[in-house]
Amino acid sequence: MKKLVSKLIFYIFIGFSLFAAEFQVRLLPAYSYIQGVSDASAGGILSLDFAPVTFRANDKILLSLQGSFNNLFEDGIKSEQLLDYNLSLAYSMRITDRFYLMPEGFGGLWTITENTTEGLPQQNGYFYGGRLSANIHIMPEMDISLFAGYKGLSLAQRFFSHTIHAGLGISYNFTKGTRYSANIEITNADLQPLFPVFYAHYSDNPFGTISIQNNEEAAINDVKVYFYNQYMLTRTLIGSFEKIKQGQTVDVDITALLNESILGQLSDSITDGTIYVEYKLLSKTKEFTYNMSFTTLSRNSMTWADDRQAAAFVSPRDASALKFARQVKSIVKGSLRDDIPVNIQYAGALFCALKAYGINYVIDPTSAYSDNTGGLSIDFLQFPYQTLSYHGGDCDDLSIMNCSLLEAIGIETAFITVPGHIFIAFDSGVTLFDADQKIPGGNYVEYDNKAWIPFEITLCTDTFDLALRTGYSQWVKAGEEAAIIPLKDAWQAFRAVSVPEAEGSIPAPNKVTLIEDFKNLKY
Predict the structure, then answer these.
(1) Is 394 helix (H, G, I), strand (E, B) or coil?
(2) pLDDT of residue 236
(3) Residue 241 confidence class, pLDDT cut points 50, 70, 90
(4) Helices vs. strands in the chain: H and E counts, helices first
(5) What's the half-sphere exposure (Cβ side, CA atoms, 13 Å) at 238?
(6) What phi and psi, each to the nearest 5 degrees, are found at residue 494?
(7) What pTM does this model have?
(8) Mean pLDDT, residues 81-109
(9) pLDDT in tens, 256-310
(10) pLDDT of residue 135
(11) DSSP 3-state assignment of 219?
């Protein structure tokens, strides 16, 4: 009989372990007061608990197999042993993240073992009862409890023997302890394409947002969220939370400390990234990993949602632009006039050198500024060395190249945007007090306490004076719709970048031709 009962308990245990949502073991050492027994009885209860149903993410119904042992010390009898086996139904009701109450009811069979010394036969019967436990989680899988309960036993000599028991218990949840993974979820991942040229911008400005939902049984604490992908030396902390309540969802912006290796991206591709979430659940450290994919565009890609973004392509350190500009400055330095501001003369010298070099304005029908301005369409912008190498570009390419050349010789520049078009302006180097007398034609724009010279760079095959007059005319015509964006301000948000390929060989300007053209310039 005992072997049959043991096998039955074993098979029930295996069945519940395989199919139940959670399995735990409770050990409940207890003192019992049993009616008719002279002294309190020391013993304990072993409970195998299965939780097939969960409510409100925290509350559970528990089905249990239980067995208990007690020593009996009746008057005139040295010792007897009381064993019982029962089935229990309990409801675990969470009050706070760590504290919960668990009322349970049970019923089963009891046995008083045979006492050969006293000549007492084995006795059997049934019992029923209930118990209330107050439990505190010390870890997700472990808690301690204070409990008290009642049992009513049927005896041959009297109808019921009433029993009260109480004690301190401990339980261990094997499901949580051995198989329980992190239970949080990424409910939303909104990622924008990654633009390599803005790699430094992403350290402080997000390119996407994720939503993290806490599906754990309790609040999680000390939450740290990290991001990593192949263009990073180490993962970046993108969010931290002291506490996220159970069921709560939080949004996290994705930033990244990208390195310059991303500038090797020559075409669009799919990039993998990983979100790491580290947190503590009831003092236990857990980690969650989420893999995602997003688009990394080519290094020449940009949108015109913010005109300042084009500043990232303007690099005074672009090797080809730097070399070309300094050669021009060195050639004409001895031929400067006294009646024209120096900055305007150097701009004219660069105009002559580029014209002789064969720079042309070429409209890109698939990627025109007029089609993309103010929108999210992807545009293809050239770095300064590319425009020099290709001997041309559209208005944004020529603006980027001319600003790079002027900045390379220490002349501050700005973008000018008017409806459907972008060109440039440069600092005349003249104070506003002297501007009317020293700037030819008085064609300048007052901004940020400087006198800026508008410069229509698309007229690269015409004359310098026409480029200056046209630039100023367009500024005036656009009125309030015209905007000026100093590069030094735009670089605060979109840092200038340069690429290794800029070391390409650009032929030096012909000294004789350049000096002759420079001396014949009209302003």
Answers:
(1) coil
(2) 93
(3) very high
(4) 11, 24
(5) 29
(6) -130, 90
(7) 0.79
(8) 93
(9) 999 999 999 999 999 999 999 999 999 889 999 999 999 999 999 999 999 999 9
(10) 96
(11) coil
Rounded Cα distance, 178 and 201, in Å: 43
Residue with the two structure tokens 């409890």: 145
Position 292 scores a pLDDT of 94
What token pair was written down for 192?
A: 């924008």
Beta strand residue intervals within 95-202, DSSP E:
99-112, 123-139, 142-154, 160-173, 184-191
Which pLDDT band, with edges at 50, 70 and 90, does 232 fall under? very high
* Cα(219)–Cα(216) distance, integer angstroms: 7
pLDDT score of 349: 97
Indicate the length of the chain as a whole number: 523
Long-range contacts (CB closer than 8 Å, 24 or more residues apart) made by 431-439: 438/341, 439/341, 439/344
Residue 264 CB: number of other CB atoms within 10 A?
Answer: 12
The whole-angstrom separation of Cα 457 and Cα 398 is 6
Partners of 442 in the β-ladder: none
Closest CA to 504 of 310, 359, 319: 319
pLDDT given at position 123: 81
For 466, the token pair is 């026409």
- Residue 451, Cβ neighbours under 10 Å: how many? 24
Contact 294, 191 (CB under 8 A): yes
The residues pairing with 111 across neighbouring beta strands, listed in sequence order, are 83, 124
Backbone angles phi, psi at 351, to 5 degrees: -60, -45
Give the tokens for residue 204. Answer: 């402080």
Distance separating alpha carbons of residues 207 and 412, to the nearest angstrom: 30
The predicted structure's pLDDT at residue 18: 47
User: 412-459, pLDDT tens digit by residue?
Assistant: 999 999 999 999 999 999 999 999 999 999 999 999 999 999 999 999
pLDDT at 7 over 70: no
- Is residue 302 a contact partner of residue 490, using CB atoms and an 8 Å limit? no
Query: CA 44, 47, 49: angle at the middle one, nearest 5?
Result: 165
The dihedral of CA 28, 29, 33, 37: what is its sign? positive
Asked whether the beta carbons of 102 and 81 are under 8 A apart, the reply is: no
| Nearest CA-CA partner of 136 in 191, 97, 192 | 97
The pLDDT value given to residue 112: 82
Q: DSSP letters of 261-277?
A: GGGG--S-EEEEEEEEE
Pairing verdict, β 301-302 and 269-281: unpaired
